[in-house]
Amino acid sequence: MVVTSAASAAGAESADRVDEEQRVPEDSEARGSVTPGLLGHAEPVGTTPASLEQPPAETEPTEPAPAASEPSGTAPQPGPEPDPDDWAAFGHTPVTGTQVTALRVGAPGAAPWPDRMRTLLRTPMSERPAFERSRTAEPSEVGPNVPRVLDLTLRIGELLLASGESAEDVEAAMLGVSHAYHLDRCEPQVTFTLISISYQPSLVDPPVTASRVVRRRGSDYTRLASVYRLVADITGEHATVEDAYRRLAEIRRNRHPYPGWVLSLATGLLAGSATVLVGGKADAQALLVFAAAFVASVIGDRLAWAVSTRGLPEFYQFVVAAMPAAAMGVVLTLGDYNLRGSVVITGGLYALLPGRALVAAVADGLTGFYITAAARLLEVLYLVVGIVLGVLLVLYLGVKVSASLHPEQTFATAPHPALQLPAAMALTLFFAVLLQSNRRVLPVVTVFGGIGWTVYGVLTAQAGISPIIATGIAAGMVGLFGELASRYRYASSLPYVTAALGPLMPGSVIYLGLLSLARGEPLAGLVSISRAAAIALALAVGVNLGGEVARLFLQVPQGDGPEIVRRAAKRTRGF
């Protein structure tokens, strides 16, 4: 009797030991073999990695060993076989695993990397689906590579953020780069000047965190397009870490596509095109006004450049850049020649308004990055205040010397499509040059600018819709076409969108408000400035909504990604 009890205890202990070995611990790496998805159970219980990876093999039935507590002459009674359809009732998952959502190997392929990374970014880490990689890295291979991958991720995020990309797209790029190099548990974070990323090797190991400060910003959409192409190759598993570092160094070393004198020339031509757009006349004075705006904007650009070399903040650069155009407009109105000085001032404002920062600020706010959006909006406010201060000082002096500034006599009161449409397209072209856009993008973005202005003109002149609503709809069309073009090119939408919004900027409304303030009419000035702010907000919201509509109805683009074009080496000034 004692022997039977001991044998029974030993059998129960061995059964418990087997059950203990087959159970997956919560903090075990075996949990990584189960793909938690958006569908099905996120945490399967009672399944081993072997049971998920291999189907049950058909083995020959064997006779179970007789239990020690039973008499030797009694045959064992086989238990009932469980029904395969009753796995869920027993608290187990099927041996084939649960049906989950998995992301395919990256692009360029089924979807652009921003869409695939937004899927991960907007999902909690515990519920993110796993990648279907072509090769699974060993822990010994991933561990030593973590610092370099994090540093590469931060450098790429720095270039994107410095180029004016929205915070969500920057985080999506950082997440895509880290996941492509087998760092699955990563959390990027982007603010206005600081980007960071944290990687957690496991639930028991301490996280590895790295950060980088973005101190210098610039508008170079050619460099932005190169970074997008690099991220697409990384997420598509077409570039190793060393290849990515080499290509990133080439991107940073490359010069801007246009020299300084071309940018100054484009600034003057942009202001001249704006005078034709708001003046709407093709007479003898139009050429003089065009030339005056051209010269004033070029002088303002050179003065701002000289101030920047002295290390003064950007606020003072905008103050100095806005003064020559205002002074030229006041000079033209001193005589009794009825010259359109107000149009010259308005053209100078078009060349200075920070449309790029405004679009990025509203995009961050709409996607939930409120801290970054508030910082960007504050930046836009400071720049606009600098423009207002520079123009207002000159206008105040002009009013004191009895300058005859009558914008109601100089601005176009009726649409002139044959004249204003080419002027709007020319303004878009020169704005794209100022943003350092690629030469292949210039024709497309010029057409988009014409489309936006045409929609605005039809809505305001033919349909009688409010200019604020018409601006939002026109900006939505620009955002829609810009997003479609970016998906076709597998690139960022900023080069196709930002410059096309130039003709819709509220330059004339801002000038009317400033002139009212200079004349001592604060109520009328505040009304005009509030109207300009509403137009600017409609502009930014409309372009963001157009992009979201394009992403909603065109989730999977057709065709393959772009081929990588190796450019010739350029002479540089160093890394």
From TrEMBL:
Q: Which PANTHER family match?
A: SUCCINATE TRANSPORTER SUBUNIT YJJB-RELATED (PTHR34390:SF1), UPF0442 PROTEIN YJJB-RELATED (PTHR34390)
Its recorded name reads Threonine/serine exporter family protein
**What Pfam families does UniProt report for this protein, alphabetically?**
ThrE, ThrE_2
The topology of this chain with respect to the membrane is: Multi-pass membrane protein
**Transmembrane regions:** 258-278, 284-303, 315-335, 355-373, 380-399, 419-435, 442-459, 465-482, 494-517, 523-545
Question: Basic and acidic residues composition bias: which ranges?
Answer: 14-30
Specify residue ranges for compositional bias: Low complexity: 1-13, 65-76
Annotated segments matching region Disordered? 1-115
By sequence similarity, the record places it as follows: Belongs to the ThrE exporter (TC 2.A.79) family.
Segments forming domain Threonine/serine exporter-like N-terminal: 151-397
